[in-house]
Structure formats: structure tokens, C-alpha cells
Amino acid sequence: MSDSEGYPTQEDLDFITNWKFTDGVPCLIDHLQGIWWYADWGFKLTGKRILKLELHTGGWSGNEDIIHALSSTMFWSLYWGKSVRGGHYYFVIKPIKK
Q1: Residue 98: inside a domain
Q2: Residue 30 belongs to some domain of the structure
Q3: Of 92, 50, 66, nearest to 7 (Cα)?
Q4: pTM exceeds 0.70, yes or no
Q5: What is d(CA 96, CA 58) in angstroms, rounded to the nearest whole number?
Q6: Residue 5 is assigned to a structural domain of this protein
Q7: I want to staple 51 with a disulfide (CB 3.0 to 4.6 A). Which of 11, 47, 57, 91 is the partner?
């Protein structure tokens, strides 16, 4: 839940940095979407078996805070595809083979 000005709370950022793979990817994605400022433009999730997630910060420092928190997680290590100058981040989420 964002604060009254749309910035993620410290609790939101802690949720991201403390996320563990065993918590499930859908849980993290849902949280990100819920706190992403201007999500109808900057948050895009497509695909069924292989998911593609695009995060566009729009220059909003709150979204940059979210990216900073996310960049230290196992999610980033496993699924980050590329970053493009200007605050554009792309992830490819493939099912983990057992």
C-alpha cells in the first residue's frame, strides 16, 4: 500500500527485499502491481506459460525505490532480462524445471 502521496511505504519495500522464492512469484508480482505508481502504463504482464514483465518507472522516484529493492532479490537474479536507459526493466519468467 502506498502512502498518501503515492510512494511505497518502508513496509512495502521491506516486503520486496525480504521476499523469498518459496513465497511464490505470483505473490511478489501482485505486490509490485499493487504499489506501482501509474501501473496502467508502467506495469505490463503478458504471457501464460512464460510470463513477460515490463516495469517502466516513468521517472517517478517511488518506482525507482521499488526497482532498487527488487534488484537485490532472487527474483532479479533469476528473471531479469534487460534494463534500458530511462527506467525500463524487462523480466522473463519461465517455469522452473524440477
Answers
A1: no
A2: yes
A3: 66
A4: yes
A5: 31
A6: no
A7: 47
> What is the extent of the structural domain holding 21?
10-93
C-alpha cell recorded at residue 12: 512495502
Are 64 and 87 in contact by the 8 Å Cβ rule? The answer is yes
Tens-place pLDDT, residues 33-70: 999 999 999 999 999 999 999 999 999 999 999 999 99
Question: Would you state the torsion angle of the CA atoms of residues 31, 46, 86, 74, taken in this order, to the nearest 10 degrees?
Answer: 50
CA distances from 90 to 71, 85, 96, 97 (A): 12, 12, 18, 21
User: Within its chain, how far is the Cα of 43 from the centroid?
Assistant: 8
Task: Identify the sign of the CA torsion 25, 31, 33, 36.
Answer: negative
Examine residue 47 and state whether it is found in any structural domain, yes or no: yes
Decide the pairing of beta strands 51-56 and 80-84. unpaired
Q: Are 7 and 65 in contact (CB under 8 A)?
A: yes
| 64/75 Cα distance (integer angstroms) | 16
